[in-house]
Specification:
The protein has 173 residues and is α/β, with parallel strands linked by helices. It has one domain: Dihydrofolate Reductase, subunit A (3-Layer(aba) Sandwich), CATH 3.40.430.10. Helix content is 20%, strand content 31%. Bound molecules: NADP nicotinamide-adenine-dinucleotide phosphate. The site of NADP nicotinamide-adenine-dinucleotide phosphate (NAP) has 27 residues, from strand 1, strand 2, strand 3, helix 2 and helix 4.
Length: 173
């Protein structure tokens, strides 16, 4: 029996998720949501996300980094207390999911673009935690088109700050 795979993303109406290696907005409520959902869980991500997100090594996250290169051992890549031999590397999404299957905790797919694309193309149940930002935002990384897939809405909650209106959706496929 395979674990349920959670996908977590904040995405603009035009599907933009990133620009110049960063998230192109700063929405504290969404950042808090993302950190609360993923802390102490298994986080699968691409190498750039891992390199640019220090939180991947905090809050007892078990990070699995998809990369074609071995992870160099450097002080800032060392394991947080209680996370054993994590962070770990996998050479494919399938390899990362295999490691996740035998690791305690929920599995969260944390991006970036190719990891999200490959995940949404999988033929398995997914739970999508989508923060949809109600704006078109310029960027160079996108989330795949999810709107044509047969998602069932589990919940939604509206939010806003001085710059954006957004909706927290929980969808299941
Ligand atoms: N808004 C959001 O919720 C959100 C979430 C995540 C990321 N982002 C944004 O997205 C951008 C980062 O994502 P990204 O798409 O540029 O990069 P990424 O997915 O973090 O990293 C890309 C790298 O991951 C490895 N990789 C990815 N898929 C692979 C596969 N299937 N097999 C083997 N290796 C694979 C490769 O590493 P090697 O080169 O080492 O082989 C590739 O160069 C940033 O702008 C970030 O802020 C936004």
């Amino acid at each position: 029996m395979s674990k349920l795979v959670h996908v977590i993303v904040a995405c603009a109406e035009n599907r933009v998720i990133g620009r110049d290696g960063k998230v192109p907005w700063r929405i504290p409520e969404d950042m808090a949501f993302f950190h609360a959902q993923t802390s102490e869980q298994i986080c699968i991500m691409g190498r750039i996300c891992f390199d640019t997100w220090p939180g991947a090594r905090r809050d007892s996250r078990r990070s699995i980094v998809v990369t074609s290169h071995p992870l160099p051992s450097s002080p800032d890549r060392s394991s947080a207390p209680g996370t054993g031999d994590f962070p770990r590397a996998a050479t494919s999404l399938a390899g990362a999911l295999e490691v996740a299957e035998s690791t305690p905790g929920e599995v969260y797919i944390c991006g970036g673009q190719r990891i999200y694309e490959e995940t949404l193309a999988l033929n398995r149940p997914l739970r999508l935690h989508l923060t949809l930002i109600h704006a078109d935002v310029p960027g160079d990384r996108t989330f795949p088109e999810w709107r044509g897939q047969p998602w069932r809405e589990r919940s939604r909650r509206e939010g806003a700050d001085a710059n954006f209106r957004y909706t927290f959706f929980e969808l299941e496929r």
